[in-house]
Amino acid sequence: MNENELTYDDFLQRLTIQDVLIDAGYRLNRRDGLRYLSYVRTDSDGRRVRGDKFLVTPKGQCCFQPPLLRLYNIISFIKEHPQFFAEYRAGMSGDRLVNLVCNRLLNHPIPDRETRIIQPRRDTRPFNIEDYDIHRFDPQDRETQKKFYFFFKHRGIDLYTQYAFHRDFCLATRHRPDGLSYTNLAFPLRLPRDTDKIVGFEERGRARMDGSGSYKGKAEGSNSSAGLWIGSPAGTALRDATHVFWFESGYDAMSYYQLHQKDNRDLWKAVFVSTGGTPTVEQMRGVIACSRSARQHICFDTDTAGREFTDNLKKEIHRTVKSGIEPTPERKAYLGSIPAGGGIDSGDTDLLPDALRSSYGKYEAAWEEVMSMRSSGLCHPDDIREQEKLMNSHYRDFRNGLRDFLGLDEKDDTRFVREEPKAPCKDWNDELLAVIRKEAAARENRPREEETEQERRTGYHR
User: Fold this and answer.
1) Between these two residues, 459 and 91, which has the higher pLDDT value?
2) Measured between alpha carbons, how far is 338 from 342 in angstroms, rounded to an integer?
3) Are 334 and 392 in contact (CB under 8 A)?
């Protein structure tokens, strides 16, 4: 790295979140009576955009957008809201955007970098499963299971997890015109509305001998835009699911199941989906349309791309929920105040009926108290948890009232939860391997059995 280049540490030390908010088009709202500094956006006429504000934490290094409790520093704010900055171009890396924006704010010039555009291949044949020899895992036949060993061993996925998902993976061998053939672990891709047809494979290769990883990709001609891997240990259909778990790979889905199935006995009835990489709009809309009443568990990776995927899926869920609301005259003003990609609870509460405004006020007061207790460092964790329970109770009351006002049935109010592997693991397979290494180390370091009283007295050992 060039010694004149600035690092993230430099950006965090020299800039405040207020610098970034102002550059993103927000301005200080001095009339806001909350205990935190408030920044709002204004339209072309200089009027405040309802429901679009950020509150700055006391130390000025982070901000959050009510009613959500997530904190953003200058790095995460830029990455999560790239559209606010002039340097952003479609497909640009979040790290590149952070460097461009922060260096400009610090008046630190950086050299231009040439943009390369790679044209996609256009001569790809459509996927045809007849081009492959398929070998399946039979729970009743040990011989069929042995060929899968080299694909699952280095991932720490045990035989019981393989039994659970045996219907949802296979080995696929492709024969090339030159006489060579290659075999990969294949997770079949299916369309959410037509799961009987396989439209591609999410492929994973054997681990290399040097430990440098293995091949990963998709079979030639796969329908990557709409098809995705859909699996369930109990064989639950997507339309019948009560819980849907989203992952970036089949390995991560199986790893999550192995980590949690002992504590969650109902997990075997859930539906697991893998996008095989970057989730597309068609994939997200297809699954949500077929499982709208199910709780969506967003289990993408914790890196920059995974956070972006998470936000995109949340926006699609919000869009689906709002699409079922009839914009009657009394609802129209509130619905119009909801920002693009926002949920039904992110509009301007001043436009709600009096009873709902009062309900939201109770929730917001409890929420502010939680934030204050967390940031003070003076409150006992049990006291914070009690306040969080009160906050959640007030939010449920507000959400139920909001659904009634908007004429939204509870089953159409799609719920979601974000689940992340334990830090510093990036994905669920990382966490599974970390757990296995920890257990192995504990076995190796297990102390010898205590000597008997007689042996200690006499010093004689058998």
Assistant:
1) 91
2) 6
3) no
Biggest CA-to-CA distance, the chain: 94
With tokens 């009027």, the residue in question is: 47
Q: How confident is the model at residue 450 (pLDDT cuts 50, 70, 90)?
A: very low
Q: Looking at this protein, which amino acid is placed at residue 19?
A: D
* Lowest model confidence (mean pLDDT) among 27-41, 64-78, 140-154, 249-263: 27-41
> In the chain, what are the domains?
8-105 (3.90.580), 129-320 (no CATH), 325-407 (no CATH)
pTM: 0.75
> What are 369-401's pLDDT values in tens digits?
998 888 888 899 999 999 999 999 999 999 999
Q: Is the dihedral of CA 91, 96, 102, 106 positive or negative?
A: negative
